[in-house]
Amino acid sequence: MASRFLTGFYCGLFSGLLPLYLAECPPKNLRGSVGTLNQLSIVIGILVVNILGLPDLLGTSDRWPILVGLSIVPALAHLALIIFPESPKYLYMKKNNPDAAEKALLNFHNHDRLLVDQELEELKDEKSILAHNPHATWSDFWTQTRLRKPLFVALIIQISQQLSGINAVIFYSTDIFVKAGLDGDWPIYGTIILGAVQILMTFVCMVIVDRAGRRILLLSGMIGMCISSFMLALTRIFSEKIEWLNYMTVLSAVFYIIFFSIGPGAIPWLITGELFGSDSRGKATSISVFVNWLSNFTVTVSFPFIESAIGDYSFIVFGVLLIFFSIFMLLFVPETKHKPIEEINDLFKRKTIFFPSSN
What we know:
Helix content: over 70%
Distance between the termini: 49 Å
Shape: globular
Order of helices and strands: HHHHHHHHHHHHHHHHHHH
Number of helices: 19
């Protein structure tokens, strides 16, 4: 129990710190691609564990402790973070150390003097603006409009990631494949294939996110998941009468993963850091990560009861939620691609609804 608690504590801590670090280190034109590395590392880890958990490997009653013990490998790998430089934004804004920030930027940007000077100038401008604003307190997120509006957007995006039903698909994918008619070890292999698809599409997201933008990928992912959710429900409902619908159930699950990975999987971790300045980014990320994990816990615990109560109609619930989330992304989420925090703050001051224009 103690090891489970410590592992969970560390995962929760790291899931907040890593997106924050990745948001503060790269230049604006690479902020999206670098930010998606967090989700890419998560899905790679899930696939590795699924493979090692096969019965032919470590997925047996006598070998599973070895599988659990292997978590020490990434834990030890994190010791390499000691040699990584601190976030340039943290050094400049919080530690008031421009020289150390410049040195970190040189390391991150391969000693590109022009790029480093541009970043330093932006940090200088941001610091001068923040000098007129006191450091954000926890209560400011509820009392100040400049923080409350982006926090509301960030929290709905985090909630939508989990209440989209993705964990129901991933955690119970083996059962989905069994009910679809796959037998033997094929349900387990199907889950592994889903993991491989998720890695591939998260990589695609990493490649295109700084070209396409965050908002369009979030919106298209939500709409695609909504359609896939209703397909998954309908194919499961009528598969007993129409046998070939079992194959459509599997196909629906694959499309579910594809649309999740193309946007809603990676971008919530990325966009939260882009919606806030240095005076509030850390606290905002902490609140968002807490809400994300709370939503994760809620879905994980409640889905077996929902499925027990309404059976194959359970994914219709997620489909209805995804309709709401798609409308929210369309109306209330601004585009943050390549925008400095001052411009994003100005967007929230001028507008609440970002449709038809997100700028």
